[in-house]
């Protein structure tokens, strides 16, 4: 038996994300062509789980930074322009790199694709957080949620991670390379009914090619 799967993460999110808010995030959004074969290999397992809400393919992402404590609508035009400029400068001299995506891991509240190695994503997080801390209070520009990952589904009920992990293991042994050539500043809506995240794109910040 594995550890329990439950709605802990979603419950925590509801406490700090008012229903009428959207929030600014910095995301890595994978190239659809690169990630699709791996996602397709796991979809059948995830869609058969009553305790998990799948994340649609078009909204798959890895979170690098969150502007917390303020809704996006209250961010001034000057703050947004300053944030965009600082993020652009922070990413411009970081060379494009590749990560390995997979396998899928069943955790306490999610099923997520692992991303390795960590080093490149750690640098992206540091640069994004440092840039945002020049515009907002440092404690508003943060993100800490373990290893780099792309979430495929969020728990909406209770389950057993051991059983789920076994099914994921049997689904595929595939790994795919993902090209990290840009990050995106996005305005994110949390759909608590579907347990999904959607966004409007604010800016694309390219890495050094």
TrEMBL record:
Pfam families: 2_5_RNA_ligase2 (PF13563). It comes from the Bacteria. InterPro entries: Cyclic_Pdiesterase. This is 2'-5' RNA ligase. It comes from Nocardia ninae NBRC 108245.
């Amino acid at each position: 038996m594995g550890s329990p799967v439950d709605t802990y993460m979603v419950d925590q999110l509801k406490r700090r994300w008012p229903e009428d808010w959207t929030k600014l995030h910095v995301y890595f959004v994978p190239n659809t062509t690169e990630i699709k074969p791996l996602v397709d290999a796991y979809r059948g397992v995830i869609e058969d789980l009553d305790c998990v809400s799948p994340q649609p393919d078009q909204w798959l992402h890895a979170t690098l930074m969150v502007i917390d404590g303020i809704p996006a609508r209250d961010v001034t035009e000057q703050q947004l322009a300053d944030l965009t400029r600082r993020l652009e400068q922070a990413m411009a001299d970081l060379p494009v790199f590749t990560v390995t995506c997979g396998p899928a891991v069943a955790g306490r509240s999610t099923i997520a694709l692992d991303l390795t190695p960590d080093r490149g994503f750690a640098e992206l997080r540091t640069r994004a957080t440092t840039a945002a801390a020049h515009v907002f209070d440092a404690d508003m520009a943060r993100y800490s949620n373990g290893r780099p990952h792309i979430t495929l589904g969020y728990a909406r009920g209770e389950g057993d991670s051991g059983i789920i992990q076994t099914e994921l293991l049997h689904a595929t042994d595939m790994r795919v390379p993902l090209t990290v050539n840009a990050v995106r500043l996005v305005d994110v809506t949390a759909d608590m009914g579907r347990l999904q995240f959607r966004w409007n794109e604010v800016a694309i910040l390219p890495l050094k090619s």
